[in-house]
Specification:
mainly alpha, about 40% helix, globular
Amino acid sequence: MKPSSLFAASLLVATALAATSAVASHERFHKATKDSKDGFFAATDPTYVKECGSCHFAYSPGLLPARSWNLHMERLEKHFGEVVTLQPATRDTIKRYLVENAADVSPYEGSQYFMARIKADATPYRFVEVPLYREMHRIIQEVISIKTKVKVRTLTNCNACHQFATEGSFATSEMYVPGLTPPVRTAR
């Protein structure tokens, strides 16, 4: 079998295996309506969206537990190789927003599903330290490392693949990986 055919076959098998857990969690991550408790809480706080969203995707607070957001806010001078400087009042506003809407206090199904896999004594700092996140993105990370046609090169910009991430919806059926999968036509 040619290497490209072997890769395609491996990708197909891996995708099928991943799809099993993805289908099981699909309803938890799909936000059917703006007010539903499925999916994740959409990041809406204007201060958070302005300050944090100006550099990267404004992540849903429900993707990490409160202890993780506290750690992020305590380490802004070492924020993934950057020094983030915020006025104390702005920092407090953002911290309060993230902690009050964190995964461990969230009523949203996606957050609860994420939290079920995080050990009580664990404080994930990076999303890849969240077991379910790591598991669900493992295959796409492998594809990114091999396929140069994939336009998304990192997993830090959720809305590059998750078309409705800004609304708190991360359903597999709504995914579009530029350079790998065809665009999904989903009306909202």
